[in-house]
Amino acid sequence: MSQDEIADLLAEAEELLENCASAEEVEALRVKYLGRKSALTAILRGLKELDADKRVEVAREANLAKKKIEKWLAEAKQKVAAAPRQVTRIDHTLPGKRYPTGKLHLITRTVDDIVDIFYGMGFEVALGPEVEEEYYNFGALNFPPDHPARDMQDTFYVADDVVLRTHTSPIQVREFQKRKPPVRIIAPGRTYRQEAISARAYCVFYQLEGFYVDHRVTFADLKGVLTAFAQQYFGADVKLRFRPSFFPFTEPSAEVDISCFLCQGRGCRICKHTGWLEILGCGMIHPNVFEAVGYDAEEYTGYAFGMGIERIAMLKHKIDDIRLFYENDIRFLSQF
After folding, report:
1. What is the distance between the alpha carbons of residues 17 and 30, in angstroms, rounded to a whole number?
2. How would DSSP label each residue in 232-292?
3. Does the pLDDT value for residue 216 go beyond 60?
4. pLDDT per residue as tens digits for the range 182-195
5. What tens digit of pLDDT does each residue of 235-255 get?
6. For the residues of 178-234, what is the DSSP string, one character each?
7. Terminal Cα distance for the chain, rounded
8. What's the Cα-to-Cα distance from 131 to each of 21, 164, 187, 249, rounded to whole Å?
9. C-alpha to C-alpha distance for 198 and 192, rounded to whole angstroms
């Protein structure tokens, strides 16, 4: 490096150090001009390759340049240290930032709301395994061996006699085996069926089972409980109708409809212009179920009912696609 190049280097260093605004900038320039890989260090290391006359001249200029840069660095440090700090002013009148917070999934909230209503009527809450023995899922509930629900195309089989439960009714059998009447229980939980996924059907869904067994329990008791539930959940003006149906584990059996709370029974798209919405199935517990759990059907009677949680939520909140519950789309979930 010639004397002119050293002079240019000094001029550049002086200008940059005069304009430093922070200790970090000063340190960066120190490394640039005096560090192990700087131009001045390279000059001093390469002196041995120069002629003797030129070596003395270049060494003198390089050492002078080094001293000047060291002096400028010290001055720049003092200048930066003495400079007043920039104070960021905060406007305390501005509203704070609202950070997103988590909340319960709509299915969980629906289950909690329904459980609260029945809990207020004296029902206990019971849970059971999702991987269930075929006996509890079908046999003890009066499903005959050739019933279509037992087919592989309708039920997920884990083993020959083990299934993913297709309803929450097995909890009914397990609770009956553990205790004697009176028994008044609701059993919410997740269930599984080999359904083709569509806007109205899914292979995983939630149910809530309810059952009550005691002396002289009648269908009128069942109607009273379901009417009280529907009016508390859907509105005091809602009406119920019971249509004859069939379930292997109840006799007599019924499907329960409520008057459309959206159109007040006049007919709309949600109720398919019938004025009624189907919400659950129910009936008096079949004597064969009592026999399977050791209850005396001559002494005790009882009722059972079951509802799909997704269906209840879809009706309540005017949701037209069950798949939305399982897609984890924050835009959908944050509405509820």
Report:
1. 9
2. HHH-TT--EEEEEEEETTEEEEEEEEEE-TTTTTS--TTTTTSSEEEEEEEEEEPHHHHHH
3. yes
4. 999 999 999 999 88
5. 888 889 999 999 999 999 999
6. H-PSPEEEEEEEEEE--PPPSSS--SEEEEEEEEEEETT--HHHHHHHHHHHHHHHH
7. 73
8. 69, 5, 15, 20
9. 15
Instruction: Break the chain down into helix, strand, coil percent, rounded to 5.
Output: 45, 20, 35
**CA 280 – CA 241 distance, rounded (Å):** 11
Q: Give the span between the Cα atoms of 166 and 39, in whole angstroms.
A: 79
| Token pair recorded at residue 100 | 């997103």
**Domain 106-333 class, CATH top level:** alpha beta
- DSSP structure class, residue 38: S
Residue-wise over 211-233: b if at least 16 C-beta within 10 A, else e?
Answer: bbbeeebeeebbbebbeebbbbb
**Phi, psi (rounded to 5 degrees) for 99:** -85, 140
Q: Give the three-class secondary structure for 163.
A: strand
For residue 68, what are the contacts with CB-CB under 8 A and spacing of at least 6?
A: 10, 13, 14
> By CB neighbour count within 10 A (0-12 exposed, 13-18 middle, 19+ buried), where does 208 fall?
buried
Residue 158 DSSP SS3? strand
For residues 209 and 11, give the distance between their C-alpha atoms in angstroms, rounded to a whole number.
Answer: 87
User: Which of 127, 318, 113, 104 has its CA nearest to residue 229?
Assistant: 113
